[in-house]
Amino acid sequence: MFLSLCSENTLFGMGNPLLDISAVVDKDFLDKFGLKPNDQILAEDKHKALFEEIVKRNKVEYHAGGSTQNSVKIAQWMIQEPHKVATFFGCIGNDHFGEILKKKAEEAHVDAHYYEQNEEPTGTCAACITGDNRLVSPTGFFLTVSPESILKVAKHASDNNKIFCMNLSAPFISQFFKEPLMKVMPYVDILFGNETEAATFAKELGFETDDIAEIAKKTQNLPKDNTKRQRVVVFTQGKDDTVATVGETVTMFPVVDIDQNAIVDTNGAGDAFVGGFLSALVQENKLEECIRAGHYAANVIIKRVGCTFPEKPDYQ
């Protein structure tokens, strides 16, 4: 755990909030909604009744989720005190799930400010657990919803020499939302992604290489608005070394060793890495320490179901 050097609202995150709903179900439940074990799908109209039915079952757990909210939640957990160092903006529905989400964000000590509206329901992600198998049914990413909001915040950060971070999030972002992504890229000070997202990004930009270190360097050298800060690019690779640009060089950082049998759920690993990284960054630690904190957080989360964590971190 860090000796915190930051104050409330030091870290600001903006994204699509989701209420994560986890429940133990049986094969009949999966069959009813046409679901397969160990799968991840985007919910369709036919799945709407699933969310209503799943909450009626035994052992239902709720957590404040969504990629960005997961990361700021992890950052706050790593920092511990003061509370509300992490701030989150997003949109929810004026409904029952929205009320639960507000409560769960508060329990995580995140200063969440939700825009509440009546046109769309609160975003939800159902984790249907059958024995050792897990089926996840989530909804989308913020760049696909409100690129204007991201651009406004990005420009503000650049104009005021604040650090603006972004995550490549998923391969389809580079493939189908390349235009809004590249509009924001000149303002990005720290870019996160995994090896698959990095490879897709490189392909879409015509980098003509599949070497992840070279992709990181080429990404670092893309046009940048605020020249006071050199862009940092950080690509994770699961159990393999994390790749990061450090000044003019590209450095490999080994991850924390783990018994593969101890891994329970890798879905939140990327969000957790970013959260751990940011917890060190807001306390003005060097890049190497930020990556170490990211590795620790990811190592904790993959041993648990969902993006959840123990009461306090054991981080030195």
TrEMBL record:
Belongs to the carbohydrate kinase PfkB family. It catalyses: adenosine + ATP = AMP + ADP + H(+). Residues 29-134, 139-310 form the Carbohydrate kinase PfkB domain. One of its GO terms (cellular component) is nucleus. It is found in: Nucleus. ATP dependent phosphorylation of adenosine and other related nucleoside analogs to monophosphate derivatives. GO terms for biological process: AMP salvage; purine nucleobase metabolic process; purine ribonucleoside salvage. Its EC number is 2.7.1.20. The gene is ADK. One of its GO terms (molecular function) is ATP binding. The keyword Cell membrane does not apply. The active site is at D271. Keywords: ATP-binding, Kinase, Magnesium, Nucleotide-binding, Nucleus, Purine salvage, Transferase. It comes from Sparus aurata (Gilthead sea bream). Pathway: Purine metabolism; AMP biosynthesis via salvage pathway; AMP from adenosine: step 1/1. CDD domains: adenosine_kinase. InterPro entries: Adenokinase (IPR001805), Carboh/pur_kinase_PfkB_CS (IPR002173), PfkB_dom (IPR011611), Ribokinase-like (IPR029056). This is Adenosine kinase. Gene3D superfamilies: 3.40.1190.20. Monomer. Signal peptide: none annotated. Its cofactor is Mg(2+). Its main location: nucleus. Binds 3 Mg(2+) ions per subunit.
